[in-house]
């Protein structure tokens, strides 16, 4: 079983690398040149590593939430929408607090509001699941698009969150969050990394402990294995399902709050930029292990920074990274059959 | 031209790709395969269509390219969902990302020096020859694979209970391959429709979610043909309204129009109004040993 998993992941990584080399050749750079540019973009500067860490934090939070719901047998496809809900709520809170609110009050408040909003967004799907039996896959998927449109709505309407329009150049985005609501930097030289990374790490550890060491974790696992068996044991199946999906939404919402509370500290039209979907993929690839969540989230974060440099330094389209990532996902998802038969 | 006529014509034009893509998707979901990759198949079709038309100078050759590319994209999805029994949602989203990355990469290499893309011109009201052909395909699928034909019943059986269908001797895997490939063809045609009859060019992420909208139309239509077609028409009009609302003197935030299809689908699927039943075996892979 172990060796089999190793073969699957190793083979997928090799195949993805090979595809990457071909894409580099197609873009007119030698694979070595492209590899060097990618490496430079990933680890070449404190700035690159810092922005990778910020991306990884958001992906990690979403994937951690996904893992909680997945333990109870629910598939949360709605990270993107929950992220949007969290971002909107964080922006509302962050621009309306008094300017002088200290960080110790403002920041936890903004993150909590984001958590609550993301949770509430997921709770719609969770409620439909437990009360009407509607597939959470479909409802969370639909709610993604509603959430994305909600962001569009609030940043375009002056009555809502749009900054005052002074000229035709005014961007459709919110005003910046007050000082106190912004995530502090980790304080590394020249690095934009914020404490979001620590928050994500704490969340992952807390969830790992919850799932492995507590009775709640065992109950969730029981529900995930068999709803009927869990119900016969007298477990509150619906309540467990509802709260696992809702807290998954909360974590994704918090990721949205963290994104808004990071430079440039505004809610803009495309602030979510696919984080929710990428976070879902991270959660799926990690297959329930929170250590794997951390590893895959870091890898995806690094690849995102690397891809930008690939375009700048080697002239290879940045979309190459997206292609390699999706191939990696397809290979690993497709190889499930190997693990099943072992 | 009055704004209402413009709205109706725009709605019909934008409904055609939706109808095409959701016709394939509806059949596929009835057979138990959720193709989230409709979006990717459409985008692939749009790209291949634009490349083909631009290379050969003939829009029909472009359509041929699009169909071939759509078939390839669908083959990938079919191998993953049917043979390898991979998670249909993960692979669907990944296939969409692959199509987005692949076509963006391809466009960087191919559409460099302002290449022109020959397209179709309207012949029948707002519809082009390709649009009419698309509607004919939709009608043919609706007739041949309705619940009143043997084929249609076989499709439903494969999606309702694959194990039982297999016991009665139906070739479940072949049916599922067939419906996914069909979705690839209709989605690619929908993509070609967008690239060759609407935009007359290829731009990054040309489909921008229309493929997902087609999946949503099937859900909003509760897996039935006429309601799905109605949903497509409505979604087409909602899209057209984004452009014509100012002409009609309506002040509606664009975002409200953008989100309306998804809200409608949410209400339809939640069973709050009437009952909704998804095919029982939707997204459940089948293999013979699993008894």
Automatic annotation (TrEMBL), chain A:
* Principal subcellular localisation of the protein: membrane
By its UniProt entry, which InterPro entries does this protein fall under? ABC_transp_permease
Q: Where in the cell is it found?
A: Cell membrane
Q: Which GO terms describe its molecular function?
A: transmembrane transporter activity
Pfam families in alphabetical order: BPD_transp_2
Give the record's keywords alphabetically: Cell membrane, Membrane, Sugar transport, Transmembrane, Transmembrane helix, Transport
Q: Where do the TM regions start and end? A: 44-69, 81-98, 104-128, 137-155, 193-211, 242-268, 274-300, 312-338
Domain of life of the native organism: Bacteria
Q: How does it sit in the membrane?
A: Multi-pass membrane protein
- Kindly provide the name given to this protein in its UniProt entry: Simple sugar transport system permease protein
Organism, by scientific name, is Nonomuraea soli
Higher taxonomy: Bacteria, Bacillati, Actinomycetota, Actinomycetes, Streptosporangiales
UniProtKB/TrEMBL annotation, chain B:
A GO MF annotation of the entry reads: transmembrane transporter activity
Q: Which UniProt keywords apply?
A: Cell membrane, Membrane, Sugar transport, Transmembrane, Transmembrane helix, Transport
Listed name of the protein: Simple sugar transport system permease protein
Sorted alphabetically, the Gene Ontology cellular component annotations on this record are: plasma membrane
**Principal cellular location given in the protein's record:** membrane
CDD domains the record matches: TM_PBP1_transp_TpRbsC_like
Q: Where are the transmembrane segments?
A: 60-82, 89-111, 123-145, 177-196, 202-221, 228-248, 254-273
């Amino acid at each position: 079983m172990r060796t089999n998993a190793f073969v699957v992941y190793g083979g997928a990584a090799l195949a993805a690398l090979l595809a990457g080399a071909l894409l580099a050749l197609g873009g007119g750079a030698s694979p070595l040149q492209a590899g060097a540019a990618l490496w430079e973009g990933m680890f070449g500067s404190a700035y690159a590593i810092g922005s990778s860490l910020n991306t990884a934090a958001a992906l990690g939070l979403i994937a951690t939430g996904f893992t909680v719901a997945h333990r109870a047998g629910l598939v949360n496809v709605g990270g993107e929408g929950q992220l949007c809900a969290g971002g909107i709520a964080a922006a509302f809170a962050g621009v309306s607090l008094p300017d002088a609110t200290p960080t110790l009050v403002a920041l936890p408040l903004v993150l909590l509001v984001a958590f609550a909003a993301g949770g509430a967004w997921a709770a719609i799907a969770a409620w439909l699941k437990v009360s009407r039996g509607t597939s959470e896959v479909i409802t969370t998927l639909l709610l993604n698009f509603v959430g994305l449109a909600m962001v569009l709505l609030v940043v375009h309407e002056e009555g809502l969150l749009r900054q005052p329009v002074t000229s035709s150049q005014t961007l459709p985005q919110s005003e910046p969050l007050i000082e106190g609501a912004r995530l502090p930097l980790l304080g590394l030289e020249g690095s934009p990394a914020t404490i979001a990374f620590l928050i994500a790490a704490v969340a992952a550890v807390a969830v790992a402990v919850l799932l492995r060491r507590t009775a709640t974790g065992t109950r969730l696992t029981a529900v995930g294995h068999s709803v009927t068996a869990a119900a016969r044991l007298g477990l509150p199946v619906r309540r467990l399902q509802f709260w696992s999906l809702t807290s998954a939404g909360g974590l994704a919402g918090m990721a949205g709050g963290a994104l808004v509370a990071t430079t440039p500290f505004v809610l803009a039209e495309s602030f979510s930029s696919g984080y929710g979907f990428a976070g879902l993929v991270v959660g799926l690839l990690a297959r329930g292990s929170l250590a794997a969540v951390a590893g895959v989230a870091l890898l995806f974060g690094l690849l995102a920074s690397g891809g930008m440099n690939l375009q700048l330094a080697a002239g290879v389209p940045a979309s190459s990274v997206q292609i390699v990532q999706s191939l990696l996902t397809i290979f690993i998802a497709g190889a499930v059959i190997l693990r099943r038969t072992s | 031209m009055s704004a209402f006529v413009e709205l109706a014509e725009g709605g019909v034009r934008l409904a055609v790709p939706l109808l095409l893509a959701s016709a394939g998707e509806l059949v596929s979901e009835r057979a138990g395969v959720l193709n989230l990759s409709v979006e990717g198949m459409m985008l692939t079709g749009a790209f291949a269509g634009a490349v083909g038309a631009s290379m050969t100078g003939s829009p029909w050759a472009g359509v041929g390219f699009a169909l071939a590319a759509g078939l390839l994209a669908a083959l990938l999805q079919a191998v993953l969902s049917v043979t390898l029994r991979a998670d249909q949602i993960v692979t669907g989203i990944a296939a969409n990302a692959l199509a987005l990355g692949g076509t963006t990469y391809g466009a960087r290499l191919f559409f460099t020096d302002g290449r022109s893309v020959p397209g179709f011109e309207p012949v029948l009201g707002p519809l082009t020859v390709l649009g009419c052909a698309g509607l004919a395909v939709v009608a043919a699928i609706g007739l041949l694979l309705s619940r009143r034909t043997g084929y249609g019943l076989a499709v439903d059986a494969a999606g309702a209970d694959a194990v039982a269908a297999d016991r009665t001797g139906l070739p479940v895997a072949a049916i599922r391959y067939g419906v996914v490939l069909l979705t690839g063809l209709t989605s690619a045609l929908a993509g070609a429709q967008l690239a060759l009859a609407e935009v007359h060019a290829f731009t990054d992420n040309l489909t921008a979610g229309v493929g997902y909208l087609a999946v949503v139309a099937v859900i909003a239509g509760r897996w039935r043909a006429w309601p799905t077609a109605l949903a497509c028409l409505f979604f087409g009009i909602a899209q057209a309204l984004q452009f014509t609302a100012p002409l009609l003197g309506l002040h509606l935030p664009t975002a409200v129009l953008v989100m309306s299809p998804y809200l409608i689908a949410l209400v339809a699927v939640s069973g709050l109004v009437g009952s909704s039943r998804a095919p029982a075996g939707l997204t459940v892979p089948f293999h013979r040993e699993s008894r």
